[in-house]
Amino acid sequence: MITAHVVNAQNKHLYENEFDEFLRRRHDFFVHQKGWRPPSPDGRERDQFDTDAATYLLGIEDDRVVTSARLIPTTEPHMVSEVFPHMCEITGVPRRPDWAEWTRTFVVPDRRSAGLRGTLTELCCAVMEYALDEGLSAVGGIQETYFMPHHGALKWRAEPMGMAREENGEWYIVAYIDVNEKALQSVRKILGIDHSLLVRRGPQMSFASIEKHDVPSTAIKPL
Amino acid sequence: MKRRRGGRREPSRSLPGTSRPSIYSAKTLKPFLWADVPAKWSNTDGSRRVAGEAAEFGICSGFAVPMLSVHHWQSVLSFASSAKSCALSPRQQVQLVTMAVYAGMSIQALSSDDSGEDGLLTDREKEVLLWAAAGKTSSETSQILGVAERTVKWHSNKAREAFGVSTTTQAVVEAVRRRLIHP
After folding, report:
1. A19 in a domain, yes or no?
2. pTM for the complete prediction?
3. Is residue B182 in a domain?
4. Which residues of A touch B90 (CB under 8 A)?
5. How many domains, in total, are found in chain B?
6. What CATH number should be reported for the domain holding residue B129?
7. What is the pLDDT of residue B164?
8. Cβ neighbours of residue A97 under 8 Å, at least 6 residues apart?
9. Touching check for B107 and chain A: CB below 8 Å?
10. What CATH code is carried by the domain that includes residue A179?
11. For A173, nearest residue in chain B (alpha carbons)
12. Of the four listed, A64, A174, A178, B107, which is most buried by Cβ atoms within 10 Å?
């Protein structure tokens, strides 16, 4: 079982090694396995959305970063608003402080599994727990249509912002998942757990205050 | 519209699972027109036979959307047409894929009911329910399994308790519905 460490601008200094490992695993996945991004000379994958507005959940198991998620308030520039706004033809691009964009999720090859009880579902559980903790009402963004049934299997409800579309030979859809206690309960039931997967170390900033990240001192939460 | 699922055991006679779109859907993650399946899979005797049989029922062409299935590795939603070849505009393909995504999510939400239920019935309880499904009385089942009739009744009682139902017939129905037994 993973523990999901909450890493953002406030406590990143505590996670230098883990964050570097995370960027290297991202490079393995998004450059070599998916072929979505050009190789980077330093073997680390970053994009324009890796800013202080991002909060990362690093899924750590046996001292390795095995999975991850990146959450960005949709009020900040994010992948859907900057790159895929045309895929929100039904609703328009959502820009709400309580809606987070969820991107940069991978699972290292040796932790991928068939079935529902695995690392990916653990990460999903951690994302839902974090979102609920932070008072968010939806998480989502651009996703591969192929994997959408996974949300159904978790009994999560996902609202489409537009139609599915083919981009560069792959099919994607922009959809946001409802955040609520029921969604957390159902994924915990599948995993057979009733405890938190989140670890918060060092100074913490509430997600809702991120848009004011130039004045973080007003938003420090106790450990 | 027909739904087909991967990972199912197929009897030897020709069934949808042996058709070219079903086989090809195990090779690609992308939606495709049946007509675009490479000859390697569409040009076999088995595939031609299935296509011929399907045509008799007005299933001539179609569009398939492969998706993840958490319990069966992969599933495919196939939209069938009686037209000799189905011409779909890019917009229509977009609509079918979107529809398939939501159907796929709903199907997963229904079919993942068995997660966490693996341990609901013991092997012996399943065996007793299977014989009940085959029309055997407790006494007959006890002879088949070589145990006392009292033991058979005890196992069927346990199975009824597990589902919170009052008759063995109800327990059989529940066990089948939850895919714990496959009579």
Report:
1. yes
2. 0.74
3. no
4. 166
5. 2
6. 1.10.10.10
7. 87
8. A73, A74, A75, A208, A211
9. yes
10. 3.40.630.30
11. B98
12. A174
Residue B68 with chain A: CB contacts under 8 Å: 146-150
**Sequence letter at residue B121:** L
Taking residues B150-174, what's their average pLDDT? 93
Question: Are B19 and B98 in the same domain?
Answer: yes
Which residues does chain A have within 8 Å of residue B71's beta carbon, measured at their own beta carbons?
115-116
Whichever domain contains B59, its CATH number is 3.30.450.80
**Model confidence pLDDT, tens digit, residues A120-167:** 999 999 999 999 999 999 999 999 999 999 999 999 999 999 999 998
Q: Test B104 with A115 for CB contact under 8 angstroms.
A: no
State the residue range of the domain holding B57.
Answer: 2-114
Q: Write out chain B residues lying below 8 Å of A151, CB-based.
A: 105
Residue A151's nearest CA partner among A135, A170, A171, A127 is A127
Does A58 reside within a domain?
Answer: yes
Domain with A173, as residue range(s), is 3-209
**Chain B 115-154, CB below 8 Å of chain A: which residues?**
115-116
Residues in chain B closer than 8 A to A149 (CB atoms):
67-70, 75, 101, 104-105, 107-108
Give the whole-angstrom CA distance, residue A28 versus residue A147. 20
**Residue B69: band (very low, low, confident or very high) from pLDDT cuts 50, 70, 90:** confident
Tell which residue, B113, B106, B150, has the closest CA to residue B128. B150
Low-confidence residues of chain A: pLDDT under 70:
114, 210-223
H or E element in which residue B129 lies = helix B123-133
A87 in a domain, yes or no?
A: yes
Instruction: Please classify residue B45 by burial: count the beta carbons closer than 10 Å to its beta carbon, then call 0-12 exposed, 13-18 middle and 19+ buried.
Output: exposed
Chain B nearest-CA residue for A116: B70
Tell me the count of A-B CB pairs closer than 8 A. 82
Residues B162 and B127 in one domain: yes
Overall number of domains in chain A:
1
Residue A216 lies in a domain: no
pLDDT at B7 over 50: no
Distance, in angstroms, between A65 CA and closest chain B CA? 24
CB contact under 8 A, B105 and A158: yes
Same domain for B54 and B102: yes
Q: Are residue B79 and residue B21 in the same domain, yes or no?
A: yes
